[in-house]
Amino acid sequence: MPEDAGQTQPVKKKPVVASGKMNELEVLIRARYPLIYVISWEEQRVMSQVSNIAERLGKNVFEWSITTGLVPAGTSLQTQKHRDTATQDPLVALTNVIDHVDPALYVFKDFHPFLKGQNMSVIRRLREVAISLKNTFKTIVMVSPMFQIPSELEKDITVIDFDLPKENDFAALLGRIMNEVKDNPKLNVKIDAKTKENIIHALLGLTLAEAENVLAKTLVQHRGLSEKSLEVINSEKKQIIRKNGLLQFYDAQEKLESVGGLDILKGWLIKRSVAFSDQARAFGLPAPKGVLLLGVQGCGKSLMAKTISNIWRLPLLRFDVGQVFGSLVGSSEENIRRAIKVAESISPVVFWIDEIDKAFRGSRSSGANTDGGTSSRVFSTFLTWLSEKQQPVFVVATANDVTMLPPELLRKGRFDEIFFIDLPSFLERKEIFKVHLTKRKMNPEEFNIDELSYASSGFSGAEIEEAIVSAMFDSFYQKEKLSLGRLIDSIRQAVPLSKTMSEDIEQLRKWANDRARIATSKELMNEPDADKRKLEI
């Protein structure tokens, strides 16, 4: 029976009644689950929570590691008195758990190496322990940063993810650190409520240990806490995120003015720029799910992803799907779960998946003859999260080849909208020329932008940029000022993708005509009559 079901319990201390909502770990312990597997990097936080639960239930706490054996919780590494070398052997330690009589919680640290297939004696012993503990007031809690259990124990072990610290955890940490150093005359930790809130929010996604380290770093670097602390935290955060090899933290500098045309898409994004605010929540608006940008190569899909991050003032994480597929069986699924967990921990955030058509192309034909179904399982994990995610993670996916997209991805509910980005029109090309000439310290008014737009019909934004750069190289080599004639020559020498892949582009347009929303309005899409084009060079 559960421990709080009214049954008499042989406890040494009077139990303390838990106040408020119990967390999942406490519920499982009270329900007397024998084996619990906690996935977390934060042993200290898990130990602290286990100790609090034990205090409320009147239980003792023991901890095990390969270096100390089974010892009372809190035993110092320097203390030889309580070190039990005999129980460093996991089989001996598990036997001691069975032999102990008093109600207790046993925390086994980094036990996952002993759960591999070749350790059949440990696996068998754990199955026996699971049976034995069901009629006692003892529970084993295994803590590991990685998930690894054999199939033999799937029905005996309950797995839970230990969430990263929340805002209240960081608030408590920040308060403790400020209190500890407040009397130091060399440090200034007097900050207003807004700065404190910004620092706490910036820490989201870190462990408590990482947060404590980075706060210590900013105290040393800036002699206190201030708005400058945010730069230190974000810099450290980028390094931590990059360590996993799955996510890249981008500093998006692109502004809305950096993107030429696409007025429908821009308007759609501007209307949702306030969707992550508290006012939007109070109004009853849900956080936007995401958008799929489909279109011709080089027409600004990736640029738009970076722009969204900037105009919404949200962090931009680029998800490298290619790094997901690890060599070990099961590691690919774990990789994508880990990437998703990191993204959710620092939400609200823009989650960018570039060229998703190439990333999941194997999911349509994945099977035993290809990759053992790994692509399908990874894709299924991603789709499930895309439909059911509760955290404000805005997914921006880009794709070039619609034929490679699995149909499940296009179903309603996965994304808020699917936009088709076509080759830029005459008016859009004019905007693109102005953007890139200004970006390279040129005055667009010194050039006939109409002539340039006429000449570059069928060019993508990326091809226009390349034509400008090429003309600048030629002009710099000849020690001449960039001229209209030089730009026209550069454009005429290039063969745009719209000619080499005209059939594929036309097929893409036909598909998007009834299945996607056009990113550019009809007013901007109108092309001047070709017969009226007059080039005077």
Please characterize this protein's 3D structure.
It is a single chain. By secondary structure, the chain is of the alpha/beta class. It has four domains: 24-161, 3-Layer(aba) Sandwich (Rossmann fold), CATH 3.40.50.300; 167-243; 250-421, 3-Layer(aba) Sandwich (Rossmann fold); 426-514 and 522-532, Helicase, Ruva Protein, domain 3 (Orthogonal Bundle), CATH 1.10.8. It is 44% helix and 12% strand. It has helices at residues 24-30, 43-57, 90-99, 120-133, 167-181, 193-203, 208-222, 228-243, 263-271, 278-283, 301-312, 331-345, 356-359, 374-388, 426-439, 449-455, 461-477, 484-493, 497-500, 502-515, 522-525, and strands at residues 35-39, 60-65, 69-72, 104-109, 138-144, 157-161, 247-250, 290-295, 316-319, 349-353, 393-399, 417-421, 517-518. The strands form two sheets. It has a seven-stranded mixed beta sheet, with helices on both faces. It has a six-stranded mixed beta sheet with strand order 3-2-4-5-1-6, with helices on both faces. Strand 4 (104-109), helix 4 (120-133) and strand 5 form a beta-alpha-beta unit. The relative contact order is 0.08. Residues 5-21 and 530-537 have low confidence and may be disordered.
